[in-house]
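User: Could you walk me through two proteins back to back? I'd like the raw sequence and the structure tokens for each, with a short line separating them so I can tell where one ends and the next begins.

Assistant: Of course. Protein one, sequence then structure:
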Amino acid sequence: MLKVAILAFEQIATFELACAIEIFALPRPEYKDWYKTEVVCFENGPLQATGEIRISAKHIQTLDDYQILVIPSWNTRSNHVRLDLAENINAFCKSGGRIISFCSGAFLLAQLGLLQDKRATTHWRYCEIFKQRFPLVNFVDDVLYTHDKNISCSAGSAAALDLGIDIVRQDFGHEVANQVARRLVISPHRLGGQAQYIETPVVKNSGTLSHTLDWAIKHLNKPISVDDLAQQASMSRRTFDRHFKRALGTSPKVWINHQKINLAKQLLEAEDLSIEQLASKVGYDNGITLRFNFNKYVGVAPSQYQLQFRKMENSLKKF
């Protein structure tokens, strides 16, 4: 069982704190060895969150008992960090503990020097000030979250849930992550970066398009083209492309590839398949095409992904 500490402090952002609690602290007895989570603080007395909400957290002096630390937010205008907090987080990171920051929480990690030469992101509102203050961070624009070694960062607000679901996916696999996402009434994996969510609504109840997406997911083992999707939706190719982009914020071709790669990831976690067998099961003509797209969308080769997943699975058994 992985022990998780959610860091609380004065004027913590209520929404991001709630996201961390929903993902990691909500009891889920149906899953074996689910996270054991505590909201902790290094300050005395009750704390006040945004909206004048008073919260009580477990007062601690060390993070030694935890394997994961979640930082829901941080003050983007302050350079002050308590010495005991700074020392504990630095020691936790150095010992290999996993750190997850939501939204402005990346500011705390950057102030402590933990993001130097690492990929990181934060809410689009804070991008420019973050880059100015922390030029040695490898800042990534327009993504929902980043992973770099033992540190993960999410973009603004609701992207905290996207990162949380991805952490669950890493720790417990696709099936559990999808179930948790469904209970949150969110997509198990949103496409693209933050920019598309400024004006793009959540997809569902979009009539013919919704049925078309369901059809495509059922036929991922076949070579589906965008023309096939347009035909299923009874639209011209031009009308379908426009409607799809407006609804999902991405192109039909990119969406199809994402679905095929997600299926490939699930199969890699569950089965031992050759690259050609895997390509056939996810509707690619050959292993070369699969390998190219897997590298493009996941960032590693299929064989490397499977190896990483199995290492993670074995490490979980130790807790």
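----
Protein two, same layout:
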Amino acid sequence: MVKRASRIILSATSIALLLLLLSCNKKDKIDTDPALSLSFSTDTIFFDTIFTTIGSVTKRLLVYNNNDNKINVSSIQLAGGPNSFYKMNIDGISSHSASNIEIPAHDSLFIFIRVTIDPNSQNTPLIVSDSLVFNTNGNVQDVQLVAWGQDANFYKDETLGGNIIWDSLKPHVIYGFVRVDTGASLTLQEGTKVYLHKNAYLSVSSQASLKITGVLNHPVRFQGDRLDPFYRDLPGQWDGIYLEKGSVQNEINYAIIKNGSFGILIDTINSPNIPALKIDNTIIQNMTGTGISAYASSIVSTNCVIGNCGSAALELVFGGSYDFRHLTIGNYWSASARISPSVYISDFTYDQNFTMVMNPLTKAYFGNCIIYGSEDDEIRLDSAGTIPFNFAFDHVLLKTEADISTDLRYIECIRNEDPVFVDVANYNFSIDSISPAIKKGIPVGILFDINGVERGQTPDLGAYQYIKR
């Protein structure tokens, strides 16, 4: 009887040990399911220290295996390889790559990432980006790495209050967004350079103002943060400048805004007597979308140039009040098909129920302008027909298929004659010696052109006065 009991106890013990071994074996089994994935403590690691000497900062990443079985990460590597500014450390080993790293079930792995940057090197990108790439059973995942590169003023998802001034002593680099808060103002002094990372933007909120105070020889510049030659004229590198609904007394003088998704987007007018935007002597070019897009707003503009946009160079939607003098539009976009004319004007939009909503176009005046491009018709006037739609093209060289000969709103216009720009391929929209735009304007109160050249009593059309070479 004692022996039988002993055998029963031994059998029960054996079964328990067997179950324990099976359980352990299950946890030790490496799961090869390609649907498995890792989890991370963050999707982006920012090294936001502003270096004043050679910088070396270390941060930590936790990699989680939340699965029921052990997994094998076949490779972990820096996408930039040996040339990366970054290094990673796993189990005390510093390298640019590692392989066959096992993580037990419901366990984690520590990775330490280090970046070394000389901020005084002008060859270093403004923003140094890389990524850690993980391959698990063929499933590829990554974690972004971002560090500030040169000695500059950096902004990441910041809201600015008060009266802020940006000077030209250091570049200003935006990652994510900068928003001028309600009631605040942002002034950019002459020569200031603003670089924006991919998808970054500058916005100005209600009752806030943007003041850009460039001068002829020291304009304020907006462009992407990639400075290598390949990106010099590559559009779509950043978003654009938003002047939100109710922003007030925005002023731009001598700015160069290029290579974004759009140049300026401006929303509804705040005051019927004060323009929402006064923009002078400014070049906007090489946008994947629009150069200037206005929604029921008001703009007063002189000596501006809008060149090569994937959509309309100038889009005035849902009415408003606009005054453009000595504007040059040269739209020869070739990176993709362009279905929008260079100038689009409407007095309506559609609400969320797709019901047409109208707003009067109280004024759209174009004086001494050039509107030209590669499409057959570069102007579209889109009116609902039941409210005021007031426009005038006064001494304008324009490209259109419309018959303007009997329309009194076209005053001494030149139709479908090539303005003969100096160098379209290199965005030089000044006029050549044989241009039909020479001495075809009338005095409209603009005494000097965008380059400070005196216009005289018979000015040329567009932003540039012809200078004999």
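The two ends are 121 Å apart (CA to CA).

Let me know if you want the two compared in more detail.
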